[in-house]
Amino acid sequence: MSCESSQTILYTNCQVYGQPGISAILCNDGKISKLLPNGNVVAGKRIDLNGAWIYPGFTDAHMHLTGLGWSLETVDMVGTPTKEAALKKVLDAVNNTPEGTWIRGRGWDQNDWPILEYPTAADLDKITQKHPVIFRRIDGHAAWANSLAMDLAGLTQETKDVDGGIILRDKNGNPTGIFIDNALDLIEAKIPPTSPDDIRRQIRKAQKLLNTLGLTSIHDAGTSKEEISVLKEMISTGELSVRVYTMLHNNPDDYEPYIASGPETENPFIKIRAVKIYMDGALGSRGAALLEPYSDDPDNMGLLIIKPKTHESLVKKITKAGFQVNTHGIGDRAVRTILNSYEKNANPFLRNRIEHAQIVHKDDVSRFKELGVIPAMQATHCTSDMYWADERLGQDRLYEAYPWQTLIQSGVIVLAGSDAPVEFPDPLAGIYAAVTRQDKNSWPKDGWQAQEKMTMEQAIKSYTEWAAYASFEEGVKGKIKDGFYADFTVLDRELSAINPMDILNTHVLYTIVNGKIVYQRNHDK
User: Fold this and answer.
1) Which domains are assigned to the chain?
2) pTM of this prediction?
């Protein structure tokens, strides 16, 4: 696929979201050159869309590009209903993997199992003692390893805990095989590094899936310098079929060179002007930092992965270099700590973000608008977590959870995304979750914490023009408008909240990036 063309392309016989008088779009050199009431113009190529609906190209504003590609070639434990089902997947991988080779994967969630307990290394040791194995939890903030992996990492009873991390231990002080947040590094540092060929292969796999789902752009929440190098090579060879807004990985080796040289914003397929920082863990693994203890773990308030002073100094440094700061913050204590840090050191014109912002104390809602901070929130996190969020938070705090409409009404935009591979990156599933706050079986009846539902217009904006604003691209992306990128998501019907199940039954017919078809239903270009 080539991303550059001087040929004019006319997309005709279509219905354009929000523009009832338009039925054809003329594209030239990757941009929209004219919106037309009919197809009566000369064009180098004409494509009849047979009455389909064109939307501005959907953007996933928080996902992990190579992480998604990696997940497509490793053990997928998402949705396993029992520990035994997860272990069966491990056994299948063991039977197809040479001894001594690392086996990895992610997606298990003990909250979905009949017995709500963390698994152990002993469970994995029954499957294999000849392969080091490690599997990240669904949220990516905890990992489950076997004894061989722990042995290779030199982990014993004497191993000390690390700042911002937890090693779960048995009654004798021995590691059980579960590592939370910064403790993951103790094992994962021993895994052989990925090569540029691995990265390219994983990006290819990820973008192919993303294009089938109607995604034309993504915000990559933690990009390494090696990944940027591969992305730039793919752009030069015309291989990249999704635009990437990078958040430089929270590693000085990755962000320091760019802090020194400054943002890169000229290439229409890659933007380098943000840095990702982690403040806390995740709610499911009780690592999200809360202002009050967990209801189901009264001695635990979660943890801050970095010290507030460290965050403040990083914000000051990143801001001075002209980069947006995007900080992972899930619990209300983490969100407040980030807002305090931004208030002291951030520049509101840099559109700094809090990634996830899942639990927000009522006293902090108005501060997003006051400080120019954008919450990047993933609707399907809510509908995945709603079954057990009350156990973590208790009834009195549930109103703080995933407060999309409250934040929108306070005057800020809310970004959509999937956090893939944590959730499947289907924007239609995200829109459905945003407007219903229900699972795919329409539960609960009126929606979970229904006062926080988005309208359909808001949900679409969260995937289009609001996402474009958050990446400083509102002048070229997020709308169907003359001079904007010719990035379109083409659906077989109009999206409507009247019968929400229709959203889930909607099909992506075409995905168009830079004026060219990168996916066509039943015929992948």
Assistant:
1) 75-188 (3.10.310.70)
2) 0.87
